[in-house]
Specification:
Blueprint lengths: L4 H11 L17 E3 L2 E3 L5 E4 L2 H4 L8 H13 L10 H18 L3 E6 L2 H16 L3 E5 L8 H5 L18 E3 L19 H8 L9 E2 L4 E2 L1 E6 L15 H11 L3 E5 L23 E4 L11 E6 H4 L17 H16 L2 H22 L4 E7 L2 E6 L9 H11 L4 E3 L2 E6 L2 E2 L5 E4 L7 H19 L3
Parallel strand pairs: 3-16, 5-6, 5-9, 9-10, 10-11
Antiparallel strand pairs: 1-2, 2-3, 4-12, 7-8, 11-12, 13-14, 14-18, 15-16, 17-18
Bound molecules: pyridoxal-5'-phosphate.
The site of pyridoxal-5'-phosphate has 15 residues, from α5.
Length: 459
């Protein structure tokens, strides 16, 4: 007999560590099955999902083509020690390397691991090996994962506080978050003041990062998310990255592009940084590479940094690094990406969805302060009645009410799955399935509006 939810919660409280999860709801929510854009709970109530596992399941839940690819691999070569080669690994590496050639005009190689943070760790080793430096720059508001190395370059002190001293903590640079400009300026009259502040760091040795005599920086790389994920789907002005890249090149600092959340077309192009016309030295990827099925992550790096004569065998080896199920799925995802013009599709659907979000903002300016985004990485900032101050409590309330599964639709009760991000935890980071239809966008807007109206009664 299937155990009741109550029984399972009791066992969870007794036997599960809470260290590997986040309990945003009390009690935490169980789901039983999924399909397309929907999750279904144990009572079979559908929940329209607008976050798709933080963009890991971009190609839709239970995607049949990916399921078939996984089952074929299950029947053929479901497991293999990573010291041996298999077809899918090599073909996947080729496809990713060729994508970088196409988009950035650079030759390079691909290296696999399992989780996003592990791939970030591998990239840190690569940077250290090439530059002989431990220190890197990263952005305020940036998120790169929770292993020790990834925590050291993730902006939030809360993630580090209990785990000792991080001597290789990144130097955090303000991200161009124009809606709440860290310098209190307004784009474009700011004339890109923020990036000029980065330049200023190199103006004298007493700013702490640059030795004129040696022509050398203390920092080996700059870790960026082209569009901040956990930071609230913040899109920078188009001039920012070209200006930053010029500064980095002048000072021989590598640009590491964390595409774990925005990669695989979430922001239109296969790699989000390609939207801004600059070349990375290293790309880190994960999440949607396998659509959230058997996980696989990895890095791509320019040939000079990763060729076997410099980054040799075993530099970061892990038992599951290029596991056969993950590589078979990754290969199928890359094939899907090659066969479908996702750049056009995602930008078109993003515009359609944004129109609906903008209509909501117009109707509720005392609740929604900003909407925006790029491709299908959309954002909605929830604000206090003054129309600007972040309202975290109201954001949490909307989220929690959406998870109750009692919103009214012509087909019966439904829930709305939202994800909260942003510096002030007041941003809905909206990452729908690429398969979302216009009817589902209408439904999402309607469910959102029901939530706002309901929560306004309690404001
Ligand atoms: C931009 C970015 N980098 C790194 C990570 C860490 O990936 P993982 O959770 O797979 O370790 C995440 C996860 O949310 C992310 O969004």
């Amino acid at each position: 007999m299937t155990p009741s939810e109550k029984e399972l919660l009791k066992k969870e409280a007794r036997y599960c560590s809470w260290g590997d999860t986040v309990h945003y709801l009390e009690p935490p929510k169980f789901f039983e099955r999924c399909e397309g854009t929907y999750l279904y709970d144990r009572k079979d109530t559908p929940f329209l999902d607008l976050q798709m596992w933080y963009s890991a399941a971009s190609f839709g839940y239970r995607n049949e083509r990916l399921r078939d690819a996984m089952m074929r691999q299950m029947d053929k070569l479901p497991q293999l020690a990573c010291q041996y080669l298999h077809t899918e690994k090599v073909e996947l590496a080729e496809k990713i390397a060729r994508s970088a050639e196409r988009l950035f005009g650079e030759q390079g190689r691909v290296h696999f691991n399992v989780g996003g943070a592990q791939a970030v760790e591998d990239s840190l080793k690569l940077v250290r090996q090439h530059t002989k430096k431990n220190l890197v720059f990263a952005f305020m508001g940036g998120y790169h994962g929770r292993t020790l190395g990834a925590s050291a370059i993730t902006s939030s002190f809360r993630y580090r506080r209990r785990y000792g001293h991080f001597s290789d903590r990144a130097q955090f640079i303000p991200y161009p978050y124009c809606y709440r400009c860290p310098y209190g300026k307004t784009y474009p009259s700011c004339k890109m003041y923020c990036v000029k502040q980065v330049e200023k760091l190199f103006e004298t040795e007493y700013n702490g990062v640059w030795d004129f005599k040696a022509g050398e920086s203390e920092y080996g790389a700059f870790y960026v998310e082209a569009i901040q994920g956990t930071g609230g789907y913040v899109v920078p002005p188009k001039e920012y990255f070209p200006m930053l890249k010029a500064i980095l090149e002048r000072h021989k600092i590598l640009l590491v592009d964390d595409e774990i959340q925005m990669g695989f077309h979430r922001a239109g192009k296969l790699w989000a940084l390609a939207n801004f016309g600059v070349k990375p030295d290293v790309i880190v990827f994960g999440k949607a590479l396998t659509n959230g099925l058997n996980p696989l992550s990895g890095i791509w790096a320019r040939e000079e940094l990763i060729k076997p004569s410099v980054f040799g065998a075993g530099s970061t080896h892990s038992t599951f690094s290029s596991n056969t199920l993950g590589t078979a799925l990754g290969l199928e995802v890359m094939k899907i990406c090659e066969e479908t013009d996702y750049e056009t599709l995602v930008n078109r659907k993003g515009k359609q969805f944004l129109t609906r979000l903008k209509a909501l903002q117009k109707k509720y300016p005392k609740v929604i302060g900003d909407v925006g985004g790029m491709g299908l990485a959309l954002r909605m900032e929830i604000v206090k009645p003054d129309g600007y101050a972040p309202d975290r409590a109201f954001t949490d309330l909307i989220f929690a009410e959406g998870m109750k599964g009692d919103l009214k639709t012509p087909k019966g009760n439904m829930g709305l799955v939202l994800d909260v991000g942003g510096y002030y935890k007041n941003v809905f980071t909206i990452a729908p399935s690429f398969g979302i239809t216009e009817a589902e966008m209408d439904l999402a807007a309607d469910l959102f509006e029901q939530l706002i109206r309901r929560c306004l009664k309690r404001r």
